[in-house]
Design goal:
CATH architecture of the largest domain in chain B: 3-Layer(aba) Sandwich
Helix content of chain A: 40-55%
Oligomer: heterotrimer
Radius of gyration of chain A: 23 Å
Structural class of chain A: alpha/beta
Distance between the termini of chain A: 65 Å
Strand order of the largest sheet of chain A: 8-7-11-9-10
Chains: A alpha/beta (482), B alpha/beta (509), C alpha+beta (180)
CATH topology of the largest domain in chain B: Rossmann fold
Strand order of the largest sheet of chain B: 15-14-21-20-19-16-17-18
Number of helices of chain B: 13
Largest sheet of chain A: 5 strands, mixed
Order of helices and strands of chain A: HHHHHEHHEHEHEHHEEEEHEEHEHHHHHH
Shape of chain B: elongated
Helix content of chain B: 10-25%
Structural class of chain B: alpha/beta
Distance between the termini of chain B: 48 Å
Chain lengths: 482, 509, 180
Amino acid sequence: MTAKKKAAAKKASTKKASAKKAAAPAKVVRAADGSYPETRILSANFGVKDSWTLPVAKKNGAYKSLEKAIKTMTPAEVIDEVKTSRVRGRGGAGFPTGVKWGFVPTDTDKAKYLVLNADESEPGTFKDRFLMELDPHLVLEGCLLCAYATGLDVIYIYVRGEYPLSIARLEGAIEEAREAGLLGKDILGKKGFNVEAHVHPGAGAYICGEETGMLESLEGKRGHPRIKPPFPAVEGAFGCPTVINNVETLAHVPSIIEHGGAWFGDLGIAPDPDNPRAMGSAGTKLMGLSGDIKTPGCWEFEFGITVRELIEQYGGGALDGRTIKAVIPGGLSMPVLTADELDVPMGFDALVKVGSGLGTATAIVMDDACDMVEACENIAHFFADESCGQCTPCREGCHWMEKIFTRIKAGDGTPADLDLLEHLFVNIEGRTICALADAAVWPLRSILRKFRHEFLAKMPGHADPHAADAKASDAAAPVGAK
Amino acid sequence: MADVKTVFINGVEYPFDAGQTVIQVAHENGLDVPHYCYHPGLSIAGNCRICMVEVEGDAKPQVSCKLECAPPPWVSEPLRIQTESELAKSARAGTMEMLLVNHPLDCPICDQAGECHLQDYSYQLGQGQASSSTAKTKLPKNVAFGEKIVYDAERCIKCTLCVRFCEEVTETNELNLGGRGDEEIVIMSSKGEFETDYSMNIIDICPVGALTSRDFRFKSRLWFMDFADSVCTGCARGCNVITGGRNGSMMRMEPRHNADVNQWWMCDQGRLDYRYVNTPTRIATPRIKTADGVWAAATVDDAILAAAAALKAAGGNVLVDGGCTLEEMHLAQQLAAALGGKATYAAATGEADGFLRVAEQGANAAGAELLGLARATKAGAAAVLVVERDANVPQALRDGADAVVVFATDADHVPASAQVVFPFGSSAERDGLFVNTDGRVQVAQRNPGIGPDNLTPPYELLEEILGELDAGYDWHGRDGIVAAIQAQPAFAKISLPAAQATAEVGATS
Amino acid sequence: MSTANAAAGQSADRGTAQPPTPVSFPPKEIKKQCDGIVTRYPTRMAACLPVLHVAQKHYGGWISPEVEAGVAEYLGVSDSHIRGLLTFYAMFNSKPSGRHEVWVCRTLTCWLRGAVQLRSTALEKAGVEACGVESPDGKFLVKNMECLGLCEEAPAVFIDGQPHVNVTPEKLSELLDACE
């Protein structure tokens, strides 16, 4: 190709990209009636007939961004674009994705891996399932962009075993992609861009959603999380540098490459210039609702919708004759919000500010028919059941908490049990290798503090020794507070 | 990145080597940081959470077994660690409480009582009042891990030391974890037996009473036992051990750490080899053969006189067990010289296992060679015979010696030819020096709780007999014997510990 | 969940239990599939989970000690390693699992939407008192599962690996009655 032709080609491709850019979804605003619209970027193809097949996906633009990246961008430029987008991990922790990619060493002889975290085991969470079932090629394209950017060799998609359709659709997509030259050797004609992809089925263990528990499980072991450091970017799967990203996170990357990081970064909630920890909530997010509401489901919004708007405009509000009592905004592992705390945006920083967290952005709604003591027993049972058993405080503590809730439910509790629970919270949170124990404490402690009266109501004849300071403890407990 | 080479622990600055963790530096400097899942010979698991310490400036306590002394690259000041601050102590107490919530607290019937870290740290950290009134989780008890080990999952704190030992040290992988959460337990390969002959080390490293020795179970309370530092005489490795005995019986043998010889380990064969010590046919008093052919009990003095008389008449060689001490072998040489013969030693050859056990079974064969004793390969005449182990001095050699004076542990090993028989203490009952297969001199210490009462040390008996032979031998005592050995050219480059020092090394606990 | 006691398969007595005779694994019907799985990873151990899935399906829904030993030999790991996996991961069964395996989600969303009644219905149909026990007629194994990720259509039940959503006790009865 002559220099002139090259330049022309480059111009053409830029033109094409900019033409697309013009079509990029713009920032949303609430309508005059206060309604908050959906923004369908990740979910653009949801509902399209046979959206999971390659021909349909290609018709809707699949792998265009991969082609653009391979033909017009260096790997470093892809990472920069992702950094510019300020996209944060969608699995719950919210770590900046571009920064994570930047940790992968470039000067290593070892194999490099991507382990896609598709072990969507957080209770109340089903958003990644929608992506895997309805747009597996979008997920795979995101993986391939990550592979190109970080120079990795093999993609393992760790899907929870309880998602048979996701597994089938992803395996089908991998097969189609391989036949189309999108996987394997010299992908899309790019010399030396060799990537393989495999689906690795989980087998029923919540802890394998924890990134190092997942690595152990991938290696064929029990999913016991590892102590960090070393961090996976340096020493991950099979002792090699490993990127671990959530499904939804990587599904964002094609549109970031298509429309540019700046476009993505402009969407959603901007960072707080006065608070370096408030890194903002850029872009769109799949959000979900389940529990005591009329129309549970999964929708995509630009960050900014409040919990109440989500419940009232999309969840259809409370069931007939009931009132909403409490909401856990992001899966099970976050502190609970009461009915009068719902006017907070579904965003990383905003929810931390009110003492909760975005988590997986799939809220569980509880109404006035829900007994909070029994809810705590149910939650504690989950964490006791799913504790891997490795660290003493979690292994022994989670089940101990469950037993106390069972005792209170049975009417055998005393106010001293509530003090004991607070004592256990202190000795469980922050005392273990991974965050499962923290995740157990956060919802339980917030429910205990915000709905203390329901616990005391099961202890007739017992006066609350802390009645005087009960008001003070009603205040929301910030995440990580002792 | 600043080059930080020290760490502050409780306000005191300590240097550290690259890669060292806080618990290592703390232990090296005599600071007591409790630990269960940490073992210096195994990988770091960091799961028990009892070794948590406070890192100043960090709200979360950290496990000191995994915490490197070197600060993270962005920190230029040494880490400041507190092991006894409110946070550190409350974190440890919290973990302790968790460890006991489902523990059966069956110390009254637990063999580990007295050497249990759960007891020790509970004593230090525990609270006077139980905070749990809930039922404990039920888990399997009395599970056979092969023929030699019994597992109790309720006592188990899932520290995984035993699992890691089988993975990392023996690489035989018999053990694994099963179940999940608070029903997690240690499980064993369905083959039902260990491939490794080092399985019983997991009993020693188990910090609690979850793994107990079928051999030692319910035999004795530790606080009624006597302990002594010794060396295993099962082969020429000379693994450092602690013998445990009570009322004359040897109860058990456990490895003692020696980085150069056996690290923390010993083989099961060596460990269980002690049982010959407790044979019902032990010889407890000297015997002299009467005119009608009966070996009658005699006083030590009478036996010495009788032995000297018999030897004066017979003359000849001395054949000793390859498990004799340097002192005993040296005196055997003196005795042979006085009798106009030669001293030889006998020892079996077995099979090396590629780890600790070596083919040479004579615990002091290397010492014998240094002293210049020849190895007896076939039966030959010897007026004096010393036999502790049947394996080293088998019947053919014993009968073939036609010995008149016999030192033996077991009456069944005394040949018919013996005129005078002296009781010979087992290796757990004799002070002395051994030279192992690598030429390392090691000290064995007599355990007063093992063997017949009032046993005269063999070196004393041999010196007394030498004295009676009118061969001009001067009584030296043990220090003198060691000095005489040290003076030999073969020992010019070897430093023998003085007998006085050996007594201190082996102070019983 | 009473995994540890029973599933760990430990014998309290010395020397009574004979070690299981390993099956020849993989049998020819699944050999190609298993061999293919092994090639995906840099270690044979990493193939444990996917191979166990294939094996469990092939051997009627559970992994017997003989299969456990066979898989262990095939992948070059100890049988206790395999048993460690079987008792860690909720989807694996190390005991007979009935002709039909019924999973009832018990976690918060399904619990809010009626999971407790579904569990009672399933147990009643199976004729057992508790989850995790094969029904006496060998027809059902009801398992209490943590969140199955079908929350937007809670409560959810899986029968033989197939999801069923918005399940009512009546609907579950019908579904179970339809099982042979």
